[in-house]
Amino acid sequence: MTFQFLSPKPHSYTDKVDADGDIDMLLKTERENFETKVVTPGELVTHATQYMGGHGTYTNETNERLSSVAGVVDRVNKLISIRPLHTRYTGEIGDLVIGRITEVSQRRWKVDINSRQDAVLLLSAINLPGGVQRRKTEADELQMRKFFSEGDLLVAEVQGTFQDGSFSLHTRILKYGKLRNGSFVIVPPALVQRCKTHFHTLPCGVNLTLGLNGYIWVSKHTTQTVEEFAIYSNENEEIDQENREAIARVCNSISALSRHFMCINDKTIVLAYEASLNFPVKDLLKLDVMVIITNEVNEKMTSLKAGMRR
Amino acid sequence: MAGDRRRIQGPEVTVAPIIIKSSDKEKIQLKDVSGQRRDGRNLEDIRPIFLKTGLISQANGSAYIELRRTKIACGVYGPRQTKIPSFSGKGNLNCEIKFTPFSCLKRRQPYRDAQEKELSQLVFEALAPSIRLDLLPKSTIDIYISVLENDGMASCLAAAITCASVAVADAGIEMLDQVAACSASYIDGDIYMDSDLVEEQRESGSLVLSYMPSLNEVTHILQSGEVEVSLTTQAIEQCTDTCSKIYSVMNHSLLESVKNRIQ
């Protein structure tokens, strides 16, 4: 009897490869069951038991996988999760967020970052004015309100997570810290994507900080870095009429984008800003003007994408 | 007479209250010979539902429901940090129902009264089993329901539960299933589904059923008045059927709002 050894063949289902070169392990027919599927709470996602359940799913007694939120089905190989579109921010370590101080307590601040629980910023996780490197003493503890007091806005990074779903933050990079000279916009967190940088300078001469929690800071452009002694200053600098208008225009463009649920990054904001130049700033909040602007952004984005494909 | 001040000083003789039977109420025919009600629907039909999510922009989730003259708006805030620092492994659910002063036939006082408290508790009991509060330690979900127009208390409660459940789902809060609720009135041995105010004034009892259709579980039953068992079972069956119909409306409005956003 003769045996014949066949050389290993790749499976027939390895036709889908994503940007990272990862191969999708599902058969094409199975895959189609999940693509752009929208579910509501209690709806059956799949009968098959081979899948792992991620966020937004649960199993019933008969081991069927049901959805527990309203949103779109996200599948990474065998892991199925449901992504709600309108929800609170759930952070990950390393995320850049913008927050507002809600409470000053023992050696820590409580920060509202649009998540389920207020985040914690420890006294030991901030930079001292002047960039002094030392342990925080009791004297620092007594003058915590000199660094951040209630209502202050700050930009920080997520340092870690706690079991109850809250986060701890840190501001130990000079770019982070107290925010001033600008204006604050809130958008749904789902619209802001993770990027290499979240600090942008727009061509219109405006600085932009995109927090992943959907909080956005639009401020006056400054070339020189803040003197290390002034990082906790509460004083706003003089902003001239032209800059004020540019800041307001960018803010209103962002709210137009968020109202039409379009993704928000420096590119779309610049496009929206350019499209808005035909209108006076205060008209940008009118519904019909918002439609015109977002349509124009949409067209430009699709033409840009088409250009890239070629 | 210097009597005991702690005792209630009532009058010495009691007089039975005079009950005025309004004659015009009796005149209204609730159903005609063919079994149709005043507004043209059958006994087992409910009023047409309008349901839309996302009306309150500053809330995390919101919904508006309208069944002809019953109009209710609901906003959901949270999950957010519980303000009173007491540790709880489960999340808190806080429901508040509010009748606007102009919502009822008689003007209502703007402050919270006993009936609003009772209804708030009922909404809480109907919704709490459906929401996965075990996933939200130390957090609070606030549900604020305002009744803009009230056309029958039982149907108003049912609509409030339905509306609140959709608003919670709109807020992206994890839940086992949506809760659909529906009311029925017992009038002269008949079951009137989703009765309005005029019908409610003639009822001998009522039923409000809250039901999770895709799990096939009842979260809450509220029955009042004197009814026979057979009639109650029939009403419960009719209510579960109707809840499944309401559920499809709830699903439709939620899917609409999600699809609008992803297109």
From TrEMBL, chain A:
Which GO terms of the molecular function aspect are on file?
exonuclease activity; RNA binding
> Per its record, how is this protein called by name?
Exosome complex exonuclease rrp4
Q: Which InterPro entries does the record cross-reference, listed alphabetically?
A: Exosome_cplx_N_dom, Exosome_RNA_bind1/RRP40/RRP4, KH_dom_type_1, KH_dom_type_1_sf, NA-bd_OB-fold, S1_RRP4
Family, according to the entry, reads as follows: Belongs to the RRP4 family.
Gene3D superfamilies from the entry?
Answer: 2.40.50.100, Nucleic acid-binding proteins
List each copy of the K Homology domain by range: 182-224
Source organism (scientific name): Rhizophagus clarus
Q: Report if keyword Transcription regulation is assigned.
A: no
Automatic annotation (TrEMBL), chain B:
What are this entry's molecular-function GO terms?
Answer: RNA binding
Q: Where in the cell is it found?
A: Cytoplasm; Nucleus
Which intervals hold domain Exoribonuclease phosphorolytic? 46-174, 177-240
InterPro entries for this protein: ExoRNase_PH_dom1, ExoRNase_PH_dom2, ExoRNase_PH_dom2_sf, PNPase/RNase_PH_dom_sf, Ribosomal_Su5_D2-typ_SF, RNase_PH
A GO CC annotation given for this chain: nuclear exosome (RNase complex)
Q: Which CDD domains match?
A: RNase_PH_MTR3
| Gene3D superfamilies, per database record | GHMP Kinase, N-terminal domain
TM helices/strands, residue ranges: none
Q: What's the short name of a Pfam family annotated to this entry?
A: RNase_PH_C
Nucleus as a keyword of this entry, yes or no, is: yes
- Tell me where the signal peptide lies: none
Q: Which SUPFAM superfamilies match?
A: Ribonuclease PH domain 2-like (SSF55666), Ribosomal protein S5 domain 2-like (SSF54211)
What biological processes does GO assign it?
nuclear mRNA surveillance; poly(A)-dependent snoRNA 3'-end processing; rRNA catabolic process; rRNA processing; U4 snRNA 3'-end processing
Sorted keywords for this record are: Cytoplasm, Exosome, Nucleus, Ribonucleoprotein, Ribosomal protein, RNA-binding, rRNA processing
Recorded family membership:
Belongs to the RNase PH family.
Q: What is the protein name for this chain?
A: Ribosomal protein S5 domain 2-like protein
Q: Which organism is it from?
A: Rhizophagus clarus
